[in-house]
Specification:
Layout: E1 4-5, H1 8-17, H2 20-27, H3 47-67, E2 72-73, H4 88-97, E3 103-105, H5 113-118, E4 126-127, E5 135-141, E6 144-152, H6 160-180, E7 185-186, E8 190-194, E9 202-205, H7 207-224, H8 246-256, H9 267-275, H10 286-294, H11 298-302, H12 312-324, E10 328-329, E11 343-351, E12 358-367, H13 370-373, E13 377-383, H14 390-412, E14 423-427, H15 430-443, H16 450-459, E15 480-482, H17 483-490, E16 491-492, H18 501-507, H19 534-542, H20 545-573, H21 595-619, H22 623-629, E17 633-640, E18 646-655, H23 656-661, E19 667-671, H24 675-683, E20 703-713, E21 718-727, E22 740-745, H25 752-763, H26 769-775, H27 777-780, H28 788-800, H29 805-816, E23 819-823, H30 830-847, E24 852-857, H31 861-877, E25 885-889, E26 901-903, H32 905-914, E27 917-921, H33 924-929, H34 931-934, E28 937-942, H35 950-953, E29 960-970, H36 997-1002, E30 1011-1013, E31 1016-1017, H37 1022-1033, E32 1038-1039, H38 1042-1045, H39 1061-1069, E33 1076-1082, H40 1091-1107, H41 1121-1131, E34 1132-1135, H42 1139-1152, E35 1161-1162, E36 1172-1178, H43 1184-1189, H44 1191-1194, ...
Parallel strand pairs: 1-4, 2-3, 6-7, 6-8, 11-14, 14-15, 23-29, 23-30, 24-27, 24-28, 25-26, 25-27, 28-29, 31-32, 33-37, 34-35, 34-36, 36-37
Antiparallel strand pairs: 3-5, 5-6, 8-9, 10-16, 11-12, 12-13, 17-18, 17-22, 18-21, 19-20, 19-22, 20-21, 33-39, 38-39
Helix pairs in contact: 1-2, 1-6, 3-19, 6-7, 7-47, 10-12, 15-16, 18-20, 19-20, 21-25, 28-29, 28-30, 30-31, 40-42
Length: 1275
């Protein structure tokens, strides 16, 4: 039997390559590889690889000899430093006596048997030979010695594989410390990587990587090492070229016509086709895929894999292209490629792989009119003469780029629009855009380059501008276009694996300019457009100008080739292009005096702009894809209603979730089915018309649809008919019965301009509360000195309210400080606290004979009205109802029509002068609307501040008196604000101005000057409170009373059910003694709807309906309208991330029994702030690609936290096993990793505090079978 050798570095490389075969081959003993048919390694050494290895040794020596100041334990050996390693005995001896501040270089450690046993590793099959971390450091944390792991890497950036390697070292060291009774703890919270040319190690959070390592060794390792080595999974992607077995795999793929040759086929998609989990034949070759795709039923099969979903036609085009060796059009269009431009500008950039510094940079431009730049073509290439010359090369490049573009701007200046020229900048590959953006970002930190970089960033706009000192006044549409991305959107090209520039040139020749590149192995990788570093290292070594000229010629070839490809693309799709670039000028600077306001202004406009562009891009997809996405809805006109609305029948039923996600309800675009209508809706510039209700006259085929809503919805949640208002233009003939139409989504934004205007107003003030708060939150929250009588009366009222200790402390802060941040975790009664505090202060001021006016706002109407209702009840209890005007601005929701007054401008005019005691609620936009009539307020209460951004908050803070109280409530561990862009973190690592107001302020209150956390939980029992307490809120977060702590799910016992595996699962999962239940689902493949989870969820719900006892009546819920409404209102919530899963569960619920009230099955967004006795959550997604494509959504820690904390007595979560698998890409997303780690913590909590049971064969509707591992927790 073969025994496989594993190590931290090998497992780290497994995560880099994402390849089972790579791990299996490398773990196999060298002496046995021939016998078990492992091919010979063919990795070729190169100048670049040699340089990387040598730089690694040199960097280690530099760190050890020059960068470390403390004592270092180095093995007493001869030879180079990097070869001096301690033996295992020496290592243990040193570890026993190491003192804080000391380092240990290259120790030898071995995984103890205790850790091997804990991880369930088969010692007959696997061995962990001795391994050697680079560096250990003995720190002192809280007065205790703590060992930390440091990896020394000659790399410019922290990589995910580094984190995995360090995590495994830390696990081994922890086990060693326990076994040997060593006098220290191992730091399992932080890992350290000492990156190239840095003065100190970079720190990263280790807990995420530890979870991944444990998960992999416990659950995934064994599946890779099956008996049949031929069955081990493999696939080809761009990283494979760095694998020593690449040539063997490439040869095998070409020999067998493997589907791995399909360009950009993802690893999970390749696995899905191979495993054929749908019950068909495995698909391993392109001919097999062709035959499979012929069957229309393949569409549904592909929809179970994220990257293949809705892509049957694209796959058919790709297969046809590869087999016939010809281009095939996908259809559709793009706004990212203009019809033409006055000047084409092409960029390429290459980096030194050791330092990560840009060393080769070039651009080429071509102009239709030589008058603009003095010629029709120009080229510039900058090459660093050595590693230390990179900054000079970058400076030279940026100066020339700016000079060329400024020449165009100067040419255009003062000319009429028709005589001005446009510029469009292109790169071929996405990595070039990444490097260019990084260059601009890094240059902002170089004093001599910063002004130049900022000027260029005004045109090449990126989210980094959110941290710059100045921002542009207007937006630029597609400043840089990535041509390889455009090709993938529009065409299938007969090229294998990846789109290399030379290969694309062969297939997309430019008319009249058939330029070709013969890729030299000295310059070109097989699977990448990145230039090999060998030529650069050769030049740096020799200094020979011929070597420099060879690099320059290669860069020129690449730039010329990129230009040729642009011509080739246009020749293929010219009939489908419609966009034109803007006439070129550098955007002017936004006219702000204060940097923070300029940054917020940029964020507000950038968010709006990105939202508009996302909708436009969606509207340019091929029609079939748009229909699948719900971004085009084919309709048939039916009739006009009595009040002038129009009813259309959908040609195909549409899921309500797709309708909602495409934002049709406010404004939409309606066209007939003509090609002209389709072209004009693509031309529609949503951002330009974002705040105009009607559509531009120059697009006559477009009709404006408003108040679009479902008219007829079936029991499964599918829309059958919709109703809308139509604004016909004079050229339109009204629709008649039976006429066809298409509805398209439209981006609307009435608010960003209001916010921008408000920011300008704030900027013009000499003294702004808003800026004070941003710059010095602690200073803003200065102490107040209220009248002693007011203080006494307020405290008297609060004492009568029976506040818990944390609320008493919080109210004291509200009473005595100008600003208070109320951190209200789930169930702590945040709304109750705010209402009591408002009434206490109002009563106190009234008793002192002083006016007191309070303004209440929040992110949503519901939150505002919930707080106003609570205030109303407290006013009544205090006998103040007749003395206080309580109202809401602008509009009331249906449930609040009789609750309080609706206040308009006339009412405000009267109340502002006559009402001494006033409590007004309103959205930030309503408050801004009536600002002139409102006057100033003594107290501003903002609820849901964790969902509010600074742009919105700026609209209301000016309403507060200078010495008024500001109370901000929220919980940034619950749902955050929606953010479109990906913004760089501030240098201090704290939340930025793009984040929520609450998060920004809480993390800047290191001394808890103004932040008060409510701790007593009035909702969840002990178990359901303990998990979020241990992971998020701290151990002070506990049930408020013993009665709440002991809450249990009340069900009749026994409940009638068949005696089978499924019923046994229901009883086991619903056992009241175990409030927290996690169900890990195996053997199911689903993207957004999961039949197994849906079926079990529906069965649990129906079981609960029969058996659950209403805590209020002590009886089961009756089968009446009232009974079912109560059951779904306070008995049970069902939560799902996707509407498809919601629809499926509703369908099964309706099939199982007759409901007199619709079941509460919805997204977590609809349940924040609500609670019920029990919650069932079905994640549904079991496809890792679907999860990865929406990682910040599926793996959201905040969403999982909200889900778990809604239930009072019982929470059951279904999560599919693949969601717990970790791809290399997921490791790069720290927000998603935090959520994944929370999932792991949930399972560990249940394991530690409960038991588990495997149900091996649970059948769902339709016969689908799954294995479910159920973890139950209780404390």
């Amino acid at each position: 039997m073969t025994k496989y050798n594993l190590s931290p570095s090998l497992i780290a490389r497994y995560y880099y390559f994402g390849c089972d075969r790579h791990l299996r081959y490398n773990a196999s003993p060298v002496e046995e590889r021939t016998r078990i048919h492992i091919p010979e390694s063919k990795f070729q050494q190169s100048l670049a690889l040699a340089a990387i290895l040598q730089s690694g040794f040199e960097w280690e020596e530099e760190v050890i000899t020059n960068r470390i100041t403390g004592k270092i334990h180095i093995a007493d050996r001869d030879g180079p430093l990097h070869k001096r390693t301690h033996t295992l005995d020496e290592t243990l001896s040193i570890l026993k006596t190491m003192k804080p501040g000391e380092y240990l270089y290259q120790p030898t450690i071995v995984m103890p048997q205790s850790l091997i046993k804990e991880l369930g590793i088969d010692t007959e099959k696997f061995a962990f030979p001795p391994c050697r971390p680079d560096l250990l450091f003995m720190a002192e944390i809280d007065g205790k010695p703590t060992l930390q792991v440091i990896d020394v890497k000659a790399s410019d950036a922290l990589k995910q594989s580094h984190q995995i390697q360090i995590a495994l070292y830390a696990l081994i060291l922890e086990a060693i410390a326990e076994k040997e009774h060593l006098p220290f703890t191992v730091d399992l919270t932080r890992g350290f990587v000492w990156l190239y040319n840095t003065d100190a190690p970079e720190i990263f959070e280790l807990s995420h990587s530890l979870s991944i390592v444990r998960e992999f060794l416990r659950f995934n390792l064994e599946t890779i090492f099956t008996d049949d080595i031929e069955s081990v999974f493999w696939h080809l992607n761009f990283r494979c070229e760095w694998c020593e077995f690449y040539e063997n795999c490439r040869e095998e793929a070409e020999r067998t016509h493997s589907v791995s040759l399909i360009p950009y086929l993802s690893t999970p998609a390749r696995m899905y086709l191979r495993e054929a989990e749908w019950g068909g034949e495995p698909i391993n070759t392109i001919p097999e895929l062709r035959e499979f795709l012929k069957d229309p039923a393949s569409e549904d099969i592909l929809n179970s894999c994220g990257s293949l979903r809705n892509n049957r036609k694209r796959l058919m085009h790709t297969v046809k292209s590869l087999e016939e060796g010809a281009l095939v059009s996908h259809g559709g269009s793009t706004i990212a490629l203009p019809v033409s431009e006055g000047i084409r500008f092409f960029l390429t950039l290459q980096e030194d792989p050791v330092s990560g510094r840009l060393a080769v940079l070039g651009y080429r431009w071509t102009a239709y009119d030589k008058e603009v730049l003095g010629n029709n073509v120009g080229t510039f290439v900058s090459i660093a003469r050595n590693a230390d010359d990179c900054l000079h090369a970058q400076t030279e490049f940026l100066q020339n780029v700016f000079s060329t573009l400024k020449q165009v701007a100067d040419y255009n200046y003062g000319k009429e629009w028709a005589r001005q020229v446009s510029v469009q900048v292109y790169v071929f590959d996405g990595f070039e855009l990444t490097l260019f953006n990084r260059l601009l970002f890094d240059s902002l930190k170089v004093p001599d380059l910063a002004p130049l970089a900022l000027h260029l960033l005004f045109h090449f706009q990126e989210t980094v501008l959110s941290t710059a000192d100045k921002q542009p006044a207007n937006e630029v549409v597609y400043p840089i276009i990535v041509l390889s991305k455009v090709i993938r959107e529009l065409l299938a090209v007969p090229v294998h694996i990846t789109y290399r520039l030379p290969d694309i040139l062969k297939n997309l020749p430019s008319p009249g300019f058939d330029f070709q590149i013969t890729p030299s192995k000295f310059f070109w990788f097989n699977l990448s457009n990145i230039m090999k570093s060998d030529p650069l290292f050769k030049y740096w070594k020799t200094g020979d100008e011929k070597d420099r000229d060879a690099i320059r010629n290669e860069v020129n070839r690449r730039l010329t080739g990129t230009g040729s490809i642009l011509g080739g693309i246009r020749d293929q799709v010219k009939d489908r292009l419609f966009a034109y670039p803007q006439r070129f000028s550098f955007p002017s600077q936004a006219n702000f005096r204060n940097t923070e306001l300029s940054q917020i202004g940029f964020i507000v406009r950038y968010e709006s702009f990105m939202g508009a562009m996302a909708i436009r891009e969606e509207r340019c997809l091929p029609m079939s894809e748009r229909i699948e996405h719900g971004s085009a809805i084919p309709l048939t006109y039916r009739y006009e209603t009595m009040d002038g609305a129009h009813v259309f029948e959908l040609d195909s039923p549409l899921d309500e979730g797709l309708f909602e996600s495409n934002s049709y309800s406010f404004r939409a675009i309606l066209t007939d089915t003509s090609e002209e209508g389709n072209i004009q809706q693509m031309k529609m510039n949503d951002y330009q018309s974002r705040n105009r209700p009607y559509l531009p006259n120059h697009l006559p085929a477009l009709m404006s649809a408003s108040d679009v809503s479902p008219f007829t919805v079936d029991d499964e949640g599918n829309i059958r008919e919709i109703i809308m208002n139509i604004a016909y233009k004079s050229c339109h003939t009204p629709f008649e019965d039976g006429e066809k139409a298409i509805l398209h989504p439209r981006f609307m934004d009435y608010n960003s301009d209001k916010i921008f205007k408000q920011l300008i107003e704030i900027d013009q003030k000499e003294d702004s509360l808003f800026l004070q708060l941003l710059r010095d939150p602690a200073g803003f929250s200065s102490p107040l000195s209220p009248d002693a009588k007011i203080t006494s009366k307020a405290l008297e009222y609060i004492r009568s309210a029976d506040f818990m200790p944390s609320k008493e402390k919080a109210f004291d802060t509200v009473l005595t400080r100008r600003m208070t941040l109320i951190w209200g975790p789930p169930g702590t009664g945040k709304t109750h606290f705010l209402a009591k505090s408002v009434v206490a202060l109002l009563q106190a001021y009234k008793s002192a004979g002083k006016r007191f006016r309070i303004l209440v706002t929040a992110f949503t109407h519901t939150a505002i009205e919930n707080l106003l209702w609570e205030i109303r009840d407290n006013l009544t209890d205090a006998g103040l109802s007749d003395d206080v005007l309580l109202g809401k601005l602008d509009r009331l929701t249906e449930q609040s029509q009789d609750g309080f007054d609706l206040i308009d401008s006339q009412g405000l005019a009267a109340s502002s002068s006559t009402e001494p005691y006033l409590i007004l609620g309103g959205t930030v936009y309503a408050i801004k609307k009536y600002e002139t009539n409102l006057g100033q307020f003594d107290m501003l209460v903002v609820d849901e501040t964790s969902q509010m951004k600074f742009g919105e908050f700026s609209l209301v803070i000016g309403i507060l008196k200078t010495d008024g109280r500001l109370v901000l409530a929220g919980d940034d561990m619950q749902l955050p604000p929606l953010i479109q862009g990906e913004y760089p973190e501030p240098d201090d690592g704290l939340p930025g101005l793009y984040d929520s107001v609450f998060s920004y302020l809480r993390y800047r209150d290191s001394g808890n000057v103004y932040t008060c956390q409510l701790l007593e939980n009035f909702r969840m029992n002990t178990t359901l409170s303990r998990f979020p307490a241990e992971t998020l809120y701290g151990n002070g977060y506990i049930p408020a009373t013993a009665k709440i702590a002991g809450r249990k799910l009340l069900i009749t016992d026994p409940c009638d059910a068949a005696d089978d595996e499924g019923s046994e699962f229901l009883k086991w999962a619903l056992d009241p003694d175990y409030p927290l239940v996690l169900c890990i689902v195996d053997n199911v493949r689903a993207t957004v709807d999961n039949m197994v989870e849906a079926d079990l969820t529906a069965r649990l719900a129906c079981y609960l309906k029969k058996c659950m006892i209403n805590h209020k009546t002590n009886e089961t819920f009756p089968d009446t309208l009232k009974g079912h409404k109560q059951f779904w209102g306070s008995g049970l919530f069902i939560v799902c991330p996707h509407h498809a899963q919601i629809r499926l569960i509703r369908k099964l619920l309706n099939k199982s029994m007759t409901w007199h009230h619709p079941p509460f099955v919805d997204t977590v967004d609809k349940m924040q702030g609500q609670e019920s006795q029990a919650v069932i959550a079905s994640y549904g997604v079991s496809d890792i690609e679907t999860a990865m494509s929406e990682a910040n959504f599926i793996y959201s820690l905040n969403r999982l936290n909200v889900t778990v904390t809604r239930a009072k007595t019982k929470c059951i979560l279904f999560i599919s096993r693949p969601l717990l698998d970790q791809s290399y890409e997921l490791l790069k997303n720290k927000y998603a990793m935090a959520g994944l780690n929370h999932m792991f913590n949930l399972r560990r909590f249940c394991e530690r505090n409960g038991d588990e049971r495997v149900f091996p064969a649970l059948f769902a509707e339709g016969g689908e079978k799954a294995e479910i591992t159920v973890y139950r927790g209780r404390v």
